[in-house]
Amino acid sequence: MSISLRVNGATHVVDVEPSTPLLYVLRNDLGLHGPRFGCGLAQCGACTVIIDGVAMRSCITPTSAATGAITTLEGLAKDGKLHPLQQAWIDEQVPQCGYCHNGQILTAKALLDKNPHPTDAEIRAGMEGILCRCMTYYRIQAAIKRVAHGAPASAAQGTASAAARGAPARSANGSDR
Ligand code: FES
Ligand code: FES
Questions:
Q1: Residue 112, CB half-sphere, CA atoms under 13 Å: how many?
Q2: DSSP at 41
Q3: Ligand 2 pocket check: which of 43, 96, 104, 175 to mutate, most ligand atoms within 8 Å of Cβ?
Q4: For the segment 64-83, what is each residue's pLDDT rounded down to a tens digit?
Q5: How do 69-71 and 2-7 pair as beta strands?
Q6: pLDDT (tens digit, 9 = 90+) per residue, 86-142?
Q7: Inter-residue contact 14 to 2 (CB < 8 Å)
Q8: Element of type H or E holding 121
Q9: How many CB atoms lie under 10 A from the CB of residue 96?
């Protein structure tokens, strides 16, 4: 079946079974490797994309149901400039293995687009269910606050708190690896 998808502002026509998970089409047909396969069961969030402003798990979204405007991680940077969340991810040295951060960044974007200045509790609620096996949750929250509040959650603080947890402080780009 021929299906038209709007992804990061461009229209693509793919020929797939309607029930094919959107994640497979994005990665295998369109070459967009921002969304990751983690669990395939809507449990981890690694496959998150934004469809019409809502963070969705593309591993369980049939391609035929993806009728809205789809944004993947690749669609965040504009004119060679990182999205503020991507920059904050670098400034706060958020990722460790990096696997979860497609879902973390896109979920944070959907959250901030709806609520530009969330409280800590609202950030935690909004990000719930996007799993990080490396436990970078505190740095994720610091990065979101940096964007939401122009915040002074400095890289030094991030590094210090990482060190306090015994985690290595790495430079990171918050994007696909
Ligand atoms: S791969 Fe989709 S939620 Fe885990
Ligand atoms: S799973 Fe490794 S950084 Fe989140």
A1: 18
A2: S
A3: 96
A4: 999 999 999 999 999 999 99
A5: parallel
A6: 999 999 999 999 999 999 999 999 999 999 999 999 999 999 999 999 999 999 999
A7: yes
A8: helix 120-127
A9: 20
pLDDT at 170: 40
Residues 6+ apart with CB under 8 A from 78: none
User: Structural domains in the chain?
Assistant: 2-75 (3.10.20.30), 84-164 (1.10.150.120)
- Ligand 2 atom nearest residue 101's Cα: 4
Number of C-beta neighbours around residue 5 at 10 A: 22
Pocket of ligand 2 contains residue 141 by CB under 6 Å: no
Model pTM score: 0.86
Whose alpha carbon is nearest atom 4 of ligand 2?
132
